[in-house]
Amino acid sequence: MAKKLPKTDVVIVGVGWGGGIIASELTKQGLNVVGLEKGQERQTEDYYMVHDELRYALRYELMQDLSKDTITFRGNEKMRALPMRQYGSFLFGDGLGGAGVHWNGQTFRFLPYDFEIRSQTIDRYGKNKIPADMTIQDWGITYDELEPYYDKFEKMAGISGEENPLGGKRSDKYPTGPMKHTPSMKMFKKATENLKYHPYTIPSANLSESYTNPDGIARSACQYCAFCERFGCEYGAKADPVVTVIPVAKKTGKFDLRTHSWVRRVLHKGGKATGVLYTDVTTGEEIEQPADMVVLTSYVFNNVKLLLNSKIGRPYDSSTGTGVVGKNYAYQVVKGAASGYFEDKKFNSFAGAGALGMVIDDFNGDNFDHSNLKFIHGGYLALTQTGARPIANNPIPSDSPTWGKEFKQNSLKYINQTLSIGAMGASMPFKQHYLDLDPVYKDTFGDPLIRMTYDFRDQDRELAKFTAKKSKEILQEMGADKIDAMEDLGPYNITTYQSTHNTGGVIMGADPDTSAVNNYLQMWDMENLFVVGASAFPHNGGYNPTDTVGALAYRAAEGIVKFSKDGGMLA
C-alpha cells in the first residue's frame, strides 16, 4: 500500500522550464509547492571543465535511459509500432532542469500568424488552402495577449537579441544586446541584405554580457566555448532552470524538491485531481502526494502518457477525429538546408555558442505569398555557428569519395571551409498524426508506453524543397564555390537526429470539443489540473519552441494563483 503524505497546495510533475517557472511564481505568492522530478539533482558545478564530446554529445549523459522509458513509433496506422531503443531523431532530457539544461538557447517568439493560423489562412487564401485532413486551429489566445509573458520570460532568462523586423510588436527591447558577429555571420547578413531580405541576430539565452534578472539572479557572459547543445553550461551563462528559476523557488522556503521521484498516476475523484502517485526510484517505495492542485510540467510525451494512463480527458480517435488527448502531435521540418564549400576562405568553425547566428524570417509564417505554393506557413533560414566539435563534424562535398585518400584530404580541407544554412520549418498537424498508449510495450514499472504515429506529408516535402532552394540562393550570394542542397524530403526517419521539438497532444484552444486545455493551460475536464509545456501547441511554428513554452508557463502560473483564490474555470 502506498505511503500517504500530508497534503500540499500544489504538486508539479517534472522540474524543467515549465516546472521551474511554476514553482518560482507560485512560491513567491505564498503557495506551498512540491516538485517531483524523476531524474537526479543537478548543479552548475557538475560541468566544471567537462568539455567531453564523447560523453555528452554521443553517449547522451544528460538524457533519459531508454531501457526504462521510451516511446514506440510507426509511420502510419498500418505499421506495427516498435520501441525507440537508441537515440536518433530527438533527445529526452533527464534530471533536474530537463531539456532546459542541454538546449542550445535559441529563443524565438512565435509570429502573430501562428496563434490565429486557421482564421488568417482562410481570410487570405480561402478554406480550400487547408487540406481536408490538416487539423490546424487557432490557439485561443493572440500574440498581443501572450506578449507580456514573452517579455517576462526573456527578462528572467536575460535573452540577448535585437528586434525581429518581421516579428510581432514588442513592449520592450531584449534585456541584453545581441551576441558577437563572426565573419561568417557578417557574410550571411550582407548576402541576405543584397537579396532584399531582413536579417537579424538570433535571440540567445547564451548571455552576451553579465546580467542580473528581476529576481536578483546574477549570471556571467558566454565564453563562446561551443559546448551548448547536449551539454550543461559550466559558466551559468546559458539560461537554464537550474541557474534561474529553481533557486528562486528554493529561496522562498516553500518549495519541496524531490528528485528520483517517478510519477505514475494523477489521482482524481469526482472530477477533481486529488494528488499524484509516484515511486521513489532509490527505494522502490510507492508514495501518494495529495494536493489541492496538480500541474503536469514534464515533456510532451510524458504529459500525454500521464493523462491517458490516469484516464483523464477524452482520448483522441483518429478514425472519427473526436477526442482531444493525443491530438495534433507535430514535430519540425528541419531538412530544408544547404551547405556551401569555399575554396579560398577559412572560418574558425570550432568556436561558437548554442544560439550564435543570423536569421531571416522572410519565408516564415505568412510573411510571403503562398497563393501559388503547395504548402502553408514556412520557416526561418539561419546561419548558425554553434561550434564544429571534432567527433560529430566532418563536412565534405557530396561528390567526394566516402573513404580513402581523397576522403581524408577533403575532410581536412573542408572542416573549416564549410558554411551551412538551415531551415527550421513549421510542422502542421494532420488527422493521422497523434499520440496514444501502446497496446504491447510497457515501461520499467509496467505502464504502457506512448505510441507516436507520424510521417512527413506533401505539406512538409514542399516546404522543405522551397526552403532548400532559398538557402542555396543565399549561399550563392555569399560566394560559395560548391553547394549541396536538399532535393527531396524522404519519409520521416526516427533514427537520425533532427530536433527535439515535439509538440501537441494536450492542445490549447477556446473550445472544449477541439482542445484539452484553455489558454491558461487548465484542463477543461478537470479544473484543478493544469498541463504546461509544448504539449499545448496546436501546431509547431517555424522556430524553436522554448520562448513560447516559457511564456505560456508564466501565463499558467498567473492562472493557477488566481484559481487558488477563486476556483472555477478561468477566462
Low-confidence stretches: none
CATH topology: FAD/NAD(P)-binding domain
Distance between the termini: 40 Å
Mean pLDDT across the residues is 97
Percentage of residues in strands: 15-25%
H/I helix tally: 12
Q: Look at the structure and name the CATH superfamily.
A: FAD/NAD(P)-binding domain
How many distinct domains? 1
Structural class: alpha/beta
- Determine and state the CATH class: Alpha Beta
Helix content: 10-25%
CATH-defined architecture: 3-Layer(bba) Sandwich
Number of strands: 22
The largest pleated sheet is described as: 8 strands, mixed
Shape: globular
Using the CA coordinates, give the radius of gyration: 23 Å
Structure description:
Helices cover 23% and strands 19% of the residues. With 571 residues, the chain is an alpha/beta fold. It has a single domain, classed as FAD/NAD(P)-binding domain (3-Layer(bba) Sandwich). The strands form five sheets. Strands 1, 2, 3, 9, 10, 11, 12 and 22 form an eight-stranded mixed β-sheet that branches. A six-stranded antiparallel β-sheet has the order 6-15-16-17-14-20. The two termini are 40 Å apart. The model has no long low-confidence stretch (mean pLDDT 97).
Put the structure in a nutshell.
The protein has helices at 17-28, 53-58, 99-102, 112-115, 117-125, 143-157, 183-194, 245-251, 300-309, 404-414, 458-478, 546-566; strands at residues 3-4, 8-13, 33-36, 71-74, 82-83, 200-201, 211-212, 218-219, 255-258, 261-269, 272-280, 286-296, 327-330, 338-341, 357-360, 379-384, 418-425, 434-442, 448-453, 482-485, 503-505, 529-531. The chain is of the alpha/beta class.
